[in-house]
Amino acid sequence: MEEASIPFFHVDIASEVLSRLSAKDLSSSKCVSKGLDSFISSPSFLRILSKRPITYIPIHKNKSFVQNNILNFLPEKVVIMSSCNGLLCCRSCIHPIDDIYRRAKNREAKELVIYICNPMTKEWIALKPEGCVVGDSIGLAFYPFGYSLNTRPIFKLVSIQQSKVDPHLYSFAVYSSQTGSWTTTKEVCHCRYQIYKNNKVFVGKMFNWLTQNHHILSFDVERELSKVIKLPGEASSSLTLGCSEGYLHYVCVNGEDFSVWMLKDYSSSEWVLKYQVTLVDICQESYTDLTHCNVKRRLLLAFHEDFLFMPMDRCLFSYNFRSRKLQ
């Protein structure tokens, strides 16, 4: 791209300024000119943008509201299944009562439709499972810069389903945007523990599901191999999975202790304790009194790039383990 095609003297200056804008402002900036639209959509700028860390999420008590219509550009109401690098994976709503009614009336069950969409640009595609059985837990892996020798953006969907014959066996169905088709992998994972379908995270090339009894089930999207890995430390009812610096992280609360573990190596299942702080430490460092909160029953919402998001005392907090700041 020529420097004259964007309203800046130098491409580096343009990258530095535009990469600091919010996703909403960046999307609006694409309407300024064709040159700016082309620059913001270029792979080189998107690579720079992907390396920018999330510094804060503004939440104001007097301005907060629920965005009920954020996905109103889709043709029907949907349930969000997963997200990855700016894309959402949703499925059509299939209410159990509606399904029972249809069967009672000898009508066909509502067909499952999967939507992959970009909520900022409002672009979307619809997919229907064909040639294989797709379960109700679907994960999205989006490679905006491609992978291996392919540099074009691609995405994959992974559906995990439990065997009806043996509840300890799990199989996987994979959709690839490269081939435009679904396939049932030959991999069958033997896992004695029930998975939490809605608690999953994609890191690098691995999908990871939390399971009961202090384990995770991991699936390699590229090699189509699975593995059951034991979680470190003591079992906890307040826990979540996340990603930071390209590594899988496990966060848990035991008593008043917050522990952050990093999976250093998948092959050896080696975990490293990265952070450990107490609720008292968090309060003292942030000049906030939260010692009256019952942390044992608190829900850990998410963990991303060393930020932990959690609701406490009817408020949403984010804690930065690097800077030790609570907001």
Work out the radius of gyration: 22 Å
Number of strands: 20
The amount of helix comes to 10-25%
* Parts with pLDDT < 50 across at least 5 consecutive residues: 54-61, 63-67, 96-102
> If helices are DSSP runs of H or I spanning 4 or more residues, what is the number of helices?
6
How are helices and strands ordered from N to C? HHHHEEHEEEEEEEEEEEEEEHEEEE
Per the principal axes of the C-alpha atoms, what is the gross shape?
Answer: globular
Q: Name the beta content range.
A: 35-45%
The side-by-side strand order for the widest beta sheet comes to: 16-15-14-13-17-18-19-20
The separation of the N and C termini measures: 40 Å
Structural category is: mainly beta
- Count up the domains: 3
Largest sheet: 8 strands, mixed
